Amino acid sequence: MQEIPKGANVSLTALSEDAGAVVVSLGWSSASGAGDADVSVLLLDENGKVRGENDFYFYNNPAAADGSVQLLGKVPTDNGDEDRISVDLTAVPDGVARIVVAASRYAGARFGDLDDLRMTVADRSGEPLVGYSIDDAGVETAFIFGELYRRGEEWKFRAVGQGYETGLAGLATDFGIPVLEDSEDSEDAGEAKEAGLAGEVKPVEAAAPAESRAAAPVGEPAAGPVSRPEPVAAPAEAAAPVAVPAQTRGRSPRTTRKKVTLPKVAKKSLAENESWSQARLFPVPSLKSDREREVRATSVLLSVMAQVPEFGRRLTAGFGAPAGRMQTFTEVSLPHGDTPRRPDGVIRVERAGKLWTALVETKTNGNPLKAEQVQAYMDIAARRGYEAVITLSNDVALEGRPMVEVKVDGRRKHKVSLWHLSWAEVAHQAQMLIRHEGVGNAAHAWLLQELLEYLRHEQSGCHGFQNMGAAWVPVRKGIEDETLGLGDARTVEVVESWERLIRQVCLRLGGELGQKALPVQRARRGSDPQARRSAAADCLCADGKLSAELRVDGTSSVIAVSADLRTSKVRTTVDVPAPDGAYPLVMVKRLLKLLAEAPADLHVESLLDAGPGAGAGPGSGPRGTLERLRPEPGDLLPVDGSVVVGFRLSLLKGMGSTRGNAESGFIRSVDEAVERFYHGVVTHLGPVEGRGGRRC
Question: N or C: which end of the chain has fewer CB within 10 A?
Answer without folding.
Answer: N
